[in-house]
Amino acid sequence: MSHISNKVSICICTYNQAQYLEKAIRSAAQQTILPTEIIVFDDCSTDETPQILQRLLAELPLLKIFRQDKNCGIAKNVDDCLREAKGNFIIRLDSDDYLLPDYTEKLSKLLLKHPSAGYAHADVQEINENGVYLNKRSLFRKSEFQSDTDALKASIKGYRVAANIIMFRKEALEKVNYLAGRPNFGEDYHLTCAISAAGYGNVYLKEILAFYRVWSDAGKLRTRRKLSEINGICKVFDDVIEPAYIERSWHLKILKRKRASLACQHANCLSWNIYSKDEKKEIALELVKLSDSLKVKIVSGMYLNDFGVFIFIITNLKSNIKSMIKAVLLNL
């Protein structure tokens, strides 16, 4: 193992994930280029997390442990963790994910090669709760540098990384004030867009460098967070993307079309039987905040009045065609 001239901090945020936490920490400690510190912020876990951390603290001199006084949520816990880091490069790693040994080495080299890049990211291998391999996540773009302009234009299509396992340049985080004021849902999307809007590009390596855990959702907890998800997307456009377009004198028509497209896409939740009538009304109002176009109102009305099956057939067909084309192109 070796060190790099630019210091690297690995930040791990956790809450009640004791069964995965040690693997995440050990993956950070076993990098081919050692970090200068591994910082863990525990958001007031109620499981065995404190005991595991104390045991590892006695073994790993790089480990630094912090515990919140009360549960403060994802955005605040991540913000506190990233701000504590002293490294020039800062890796965000969730406690149920883990890194391959050359993650730090390969991505730090890319950031050193491209000083105007605010963050670096790579492909990931999806795994389930039991570590079984699922899909490989890869982006439809070339490796290495993407300018801030190209990143901003691509961001209207959604969060343009394979997973939220990212190496940030500390300077870029400081310039956008870390996660201050960002939503609890979609805070990672909001942050990368802000970094692009601040004038930083990013670098990408089309190679699997980490494992990203995808949870089954038997209790439909993720599904019930749809209101927060739509709110998070609204904030990305309202707080970051639209002001950046205005500042650059770019046409806003494309943003209006994209907001309408996203609102129509998320409107399908209005047909789900997990929501009450009042909850559906609340979601419909949030969709109007994302886009108040006539198209969105018509699509929302169709879903609310049980005509969503026709929309589902059309959109599902389009999605399948796009997926097949992307799969073919990625394998060329």
From TrEMBL:
<dbReference type="Pfam" id="PF00535">
    <property type="entry name" value="Glycos_transf_2"/>
</dbReference>
<protein>
    <submittedName>
        <fullName>Glycosyltransferase</fullName>
    </submittedName>
</protein>
<dbReference type="InterPro" id="IPR001173">
    <property type="entry name" value="Glyco_trans_2-like"/>
</dbReference>
<dbReference type="InterPro" id="IPR029044">
    <property type="entry name" value="Nucleotide-diphossugar_trans"/>
</dbReference>
<feature type="domain" description="Glycosyltransferase 2-like">
    <location>
        <begin position="9"/>
        <end position="175"/>
    </location>
</feature>
<dbReference type="InterPro" id="IPR050834">
    <property type="entry name" value="Glycosyltransf_2"/>
</dbReference>
